[in-house]
Design a protein that fits this description.
The complex is a heterotrimer.
Chain A lengths: L3 E12 L2 E12 L3 E5 L6 H9 L6 E6 L2 E2 L5 H6 L2 E3 L12 H7 L9 H6 L1 H21 L15 H14 L4 E5 L7 H16 L3 E5 L3 H7 L2 E6 L2 E6 L1 H5 L2 H8 L10
Parallel strand pairs in A: 3-8, 3-9, 6-7, 7-8
Antiparallel strand pairs in A: 1-2, 1-4, 4-5, 9-10
Chain B lengths: L1 H31 L6 H18 L4 H29 L4 H23 L13 E4 L2 E4 H23 L1 H11 L1 H6 L4 H27 L6 H16 L4 H21 L5 H15 L12
Antiparallel strand pairs in B: 1-2
Chain C lengths: L2 H29 L7 H16 L18 H23 L5 H21 L1 H4 L13 H4 L3 H27 L2 H11 L1 H6 L4 H27 L10 H13 L4 H19 L11 H20 L27
Classes of the chains: A alpha/beta, B mainly alpha, C mainly alpha.
Amino acid sequence: MPDSILAIDHVTHFFGGLKAVDDCSFTVDRGSITALIGPNGAGKTTLVNLVSGALGCRSGSIVFDRHTISGRPSYQIAQRGLIRSFQISRELGSLTVLENLLVVVPDQRGESLFNTFFRPRVGREETRINVANALGVLDTFSLYSQRDEYARNLSGGQKRLLELARAVMARPKLLLLDEPMASINPALVSQISLHLRELRDRGISLLMVEHNLEAVDELCDDVVVMAEGRVLARGRLADLRKNKQVVRAYLGGTLASSAAG
Amino acid sequence: MSTLVLAVGFGLVTASVLAIAAIGLTLQVGVTNLVNFAFADFLTLGAYLAWSLNSGWHLNFWFSLVFASVAVGGVAVAANVFVIRPFLRRRTPIVFLLIVTIGLSLILGNLNLAIWGSGYRSYDLSPEQPIHLGPLEFTNNQLVIIAISVAVMVAVRLLLTQTKLGKAMRSMSDNIDLARASGIDTDRVTHVVWMLSGTLAGLAGVVLALNLTTFDTGLGSNILFVIFAAMILGGVGSPSGAILAAVVLGLATEVSAAFVNSGYKNDIAFLALLVVLMVRPQGIVRMAGKN
Amino acid sequence: MDQLGYYLATLVVYFFVYNILVWGLNIQFGVAGILDFTYITFFAIGAYTAGVLTNGPAAATNQHYILGLNWPFLVAMCVAAGVSALAGLALGGVALRRLRSDYLAIVMVSVGTIVFDLIANNPNLFNGNDGLGGVPSPFNDFLQLDPNTYLYFFVVFSGVIMVALGLLAHRLTSSPLGRSMRAIREDLEVAEAFGKNSTRIRLIAMMIGCAYAAIGGALLIAFISAISPSGWLPPETFVIFAALLIGGRANNLGAVVGALLIPVVFVEATRFLPKWPSNPELGAALRNIAIGGLIIATLWFRPQGLLPERRWRWKGPLPAMTHGSPDA
């Protein structure tokens, strides 16, 4: 049995009186592409925020790559290799596209105070290597020509691509993607899927929240369904489509015609 | 012991003045979510306007007080319309909005200095009579200040709970998007809030000047950060919190001044603020939506 | 030397000192986005520290202050920078942990006020409101120059320090560390989502800025030989902010332009306006009104300042692209 890179164990989260995540437990296998799907308000993004540390996890535990990360600040979780993208693009607008990729590279010796003042060459060398890598990544995501453009001047679709490029550049062990295909030109979606599969082949695990079920079908080995804060089901998408509970959750349980699915 | 009693007396009066100002500020920050560094200058302006009316034109003091307060309310609305709102419409980041209010403060504060000059002023009033209430001793003016303060508290409470406007203010304070979505004319309510907070600031300035008997252009700025402390300690957007914090801080600062070098009077308030914010960086937030 | 030469040389020294001050604030605010509304307090810490270290024992004068060790100026200046940086660390440690910008600003000014009150009300520390005076001129024990020649020496001396600090500031802002500061300024949550310890990095920016302020203070007290609390009231911080915003935020050359325009040209030029007899403060008041107006006007019409932040480009060799995406 493949070992799990991410283990979510009985995680619960309240927003005031509202239970957004309700005793959630599941694992993500190392080297897999797992999808997290569910209707709006199911708690998927809250769960992503809990895993990445943007929200403090006060109930339950989250283990990443054999380290307990629940309760840790987000920057420490990221330093361990758990990198996330955002549902609504959050590019660093006053930095150029190239800089957006340079800044996320982990473990930069050039960022130490000592090196900055006394050994600037360290930073310059590192930057040279990172620039070469970054340009390759930008090219992969069709952003090469925009490399010196301020990130805030990109189009909406380009910003989504930058969101992905940036996450890839951060040398993740696990990529936590929040609706990566949203607002992306349909022609590009399959290209992105190809790149994501390449990442998996390089040993990176992926957990993605997605609404685009076609992409999920094409890409993901494993699918977790959430509804009303709870894990509803798990399996291959084809099987889940036949699961009455899943269908009902997606369609709100009001339409009789959905029972035919 | 009598020093302590005296200090408590002073503390209550200071608390009354603080309360008026803190209520005005907390309402404005609650609704607009913008800390206004020019608030101090509203106080100073109110005090000086009242002085010009009272000592300059020899008008009745209480009339001057009312007129000056309302005038400052008008200035506050003008500041919102001509300076703050345009920047808000442009979605300027909050960091720069704060600097804009600093710029406003530089302008208003120095306008006070330019028009009235440095040097101490006093109001033209009949001499004060001492009045004893139990062990405490007040002057008649001080009792009026306390009375005004209580009247303001009651009026604001009635406004917030009984009127449609007040309820609009509370819901904007809670969650502005929801308030807008439920049909509240947020622009109009914002204007009213600025008017109200400016009027209360002007009023606070006049009674502060009255309490100090002589005042100069540093009137507002000397007390601004204590008002901030009262607002944060009481919870932004909560007038009752502001009142409670004002009482605590008013008493604390005056009582401490009786025992420690009075140059440190306001520092007690700052220390309290520091301690609270260290423990709870979000402040004593009344509503979850405010961050 | 003639009066004009003397005056100009003095202006030049002030210009150098303000350059250093604006650079320091630029690192804190322009690059790292920290709203340090009490920046002038760190200037004061630097000035007072250098003063009491280079002065002789207080008993020999009719002032009251601590220490009085007769240390050489450069040593005292470095210690002053260190003390100020530690003060920045202490304040930042309290204030920079996820405090929203407005609370941060309020906390900073409150602490600055506490420091001001402590110094003004404790005459034994730094001679209170009378100010600290009699500070010896650097190197003059050794050089024994007459006042006119010494002035030229000091211009060169402070100029050298200024240039060194400018180069360091440039090195910082164009480095990976500077880039991470800008990322944090832009979006703290995102920077943390990519592994940046924002508190630590902002503290570094804070401390460096405080050190700059302190060096400026040390140079100025060595130049004028004295400092008093009235020389570093809260509004002074905003003159420096004005210089930074107008000259160009996050641009070290912009900082120089701002330092020249505001504290030097604008403030000095208006010093010569005739005083209104009935209101001697009028000139200063009008000047501050103009500064407030300039700040608002700049933020409205040209928020990036005269010299905007420079776009970073990789200047070295580019690798050959295999996918052949043509340059636009």
